[in-house]
Design a protein that fits this description.
By secondary structure, the chain is α+β, with helices and mostly antiparallel strands. It has helices at 22-30, 64-67, and strands at residues 2-3, 12-18, 38-44, 51-55, 58-62, 70-75. It is globular and about 30 Å long. The two termini are 17 Å apart. 21% of the residues are buried. The mean pLDDT is 92.
Amino acid sequence: MKTLINIENGKKVKILKISGGKGIRQHLQCLGIHIGDVVTLKKSSFLGGPVLLEINGYDIALGKGVASKIEVEEIE
C-alpha cells in the first residue's frame, strides 16, 4: 500500500486509511483530512521536508511522520 510520502508531486490521490492512534486521527480531522477525501500532492521533498497537500482549495503541510501514516491510492 502506498502512503503520501511515496507519491509523485502533482498526483491526485484518495485517502484510504489513516494508521496511528486517536491523537493523529483527531489532528488530521481538525485539519479537514478524512478517509475518502481526494487530495493533490503539491510538493514532497525526498530529503525530509514537509509534504504539501491541496484539499478543498486549501494548502496543508504535513510532516513526513504524519504523511507516512496516510495510506492512499492514485486517481487517474
